[in-house]
Amino acid sequence: MTPLRDSQVLKDRAISIFIGAFAMLWVFPILWTLWSSFRPYKEIRARGTFSMPEEFGIFNYTDAISRMQLPTYLWNSFIITIPAVFLTLVFGSLIAFVVSRYSFKFNVGMLLLFTAGNLLPAQLVFIPVFKLYLNIGDVVGDRRFLYDSPWGVVLIHVAFQMGFATFVLSSYMKTIPKEISESALVDGASVLRHYWNVMLPLLRPPLASLAVLMTTWIYNDFFWALVLMSTDKKRPITSALGRLQGEFVTDYNLLAAGAIIAALPTLIVFFVLRKQFVSGLTLGSTKG
Amino acid sequence: MSGNTSPIRGSDLGFKMTRRELFIGAAGLAGAGALLAACGGDKAVGPLSFGARTVDESPTKQLKALVAAYEAKTGNSVTYNATESNAFQNNLSQYLQGTPDDAFQWMAGFRMQFFADQGLLVDLSDVWDKIGDQYSESYKIASTGLDGKQYFVPQSWYPWGLHFRKSMLSELGIDPDGIYNWDDFMKMLDGMKSKGLIGFAAGDKGGWEAMGTFDMLNARINGYQYHVDLLAGREKWTDPRTAEVFKYWEMLVPYMNDNVLDLEWDGAMQLLLQRKAGAMLMGSWFGGNFKEQSDADYEDLWIIPFPEINPEHKRDTIDAPIDGYCVAKNGSNNDGGKDFLAFAGDMEGVQAMLDTGVPMTSANKGQDTSSYDAFQTQQLAVMAEAKYITQFLDRDTRPDFAGPVVGPAFQSWFKNPKDVNKILESLQAQWDALPPL
User: Which domain holds residue A219?
Assistant: First the structure.
């Protein structure tokens, strides 16, 4: 072996150890949550967090499922997350298509507008949004038209996530050769046909990775559902996690079990779309 | 104080309660319930909704029993909406402006007055006309808004006091009732320390836990009036009398666990439960946790008033937060909400809750206290010794001051008690900078 290769091996090992250490650091809280979720709080309270377990089982899970009223809240999460992700991707790809494929005076300005909207913190705009929803409700004659309705939450998610989706999709579209669009136009494709039959099939990888990210973000949201809804029974699963928390006493072991249950759907989405997710992240990183 | 002199009077913040009044209340006026059974319960008001500020098992059982009793009596259906307490509290302002439930659970004192002042609560004076004589005057004062009308119906209360295990004190040869003043208290703490134990268990990770200690020290050293005046902005945090409070507090630090800022209140409770700590200043709600652990642990638990420091003020003040109900102006059925509260405040409604077997120290005079266990009876005795009742710091001052300003200030004091003057100056500066209500 040449000295050069030796030093390369050494470097690789150092990097592996470094990465390994960080992976451990990252995995530890998850493993600890999993471990805690199998232990009763009573034991922790009496003997401390690091005591050896006497009782060990899935009792926290059965308890959490019934206390969280899992079917109701999971369903609420689905009827918010699925339409919101779908609409975000539809609108995001439409805007990205227009601003990246057609040149007109405001296309850069429009892209900037949509991306900048994404930078506004939700905490800053929630009061105006809340009042707006109530006012629209008063105009329609039903205060619960948008406020306290899953559709209101869907709309705000679409509005907030669309900027990011537009940004990612338009960057990706810029990497698709112009010639494809030109030949479509030469063949007489309409704008919609151009979008639907030519561009959309090429967008599958970034759409899949965005779908994973959006699902995670929207599913994990607690804030909008809290401020835009008044009936707890309509809120998503993040709110149901709160049901495991008492006013004074919090059973952290039960909460750990609830957190694991609540995290499962996003994991499933990730594993289903995993292949597209990875290729979507790297696609466009190299040209050629 | 640039324009910050909010129109709050001392009597709005806490309220007076004479021993005799409380004794009457505690003794329980038998028959009060029967006399007033005719009150509440109007068939005509129609269906309504009730927002519960809890998802905990025991209170849910009580509230559902209350709702069921109301439905059975009146035939009006009640939709029960439960929200986890922190989420409910953080979102209350939006909740009340949007589509609130007709009646909802809330707290007495400043927190109620704040929303009443904004016109979000319904005037309950006529409900009080019906049920008023079942409550002592002090509860009525606690239910009254700044405009002199009632906006609140009390449900229950709990006292803040010094909790300990009787067995641990008797091992030290100390009689709990013998701990009356600061010196007795110090002797007890020294005794614990000499046995290698934590004297005074404390946690302040949540930022609110230590507020109870400040309340008690301030009331003992400077008296009730100074305390409520300070919280209402009529006295200054930079006053040397306020600094005096921290001098006493600092004396307690050597007896505390050294991870105060890492523990929430229940971490401190665990120290007491595990016999690692001698005493803890906390609200009595956690008796249930001891009972859950074992009956023996619960029977060992005891409470006494925080010790006297300044003989002038004896042990005349106590933090005893009152929980209860309000009616939301923006609800769709204000009359329904009022009708429900007239029932909930009446002994008939209270009895429905008590019948569940879940322990509750009700605000209603009519509750039969003979069913109290020893710990509950002692809570009542602790309460009876106090002449003035405060609601707890974060219920007695502006919400935009207590949580975001006072909480972190106390936490930074724990990190460095020597900084006390700097911290107090910053507290006063931040109070002065608050926008007028």
Answer: 37-282
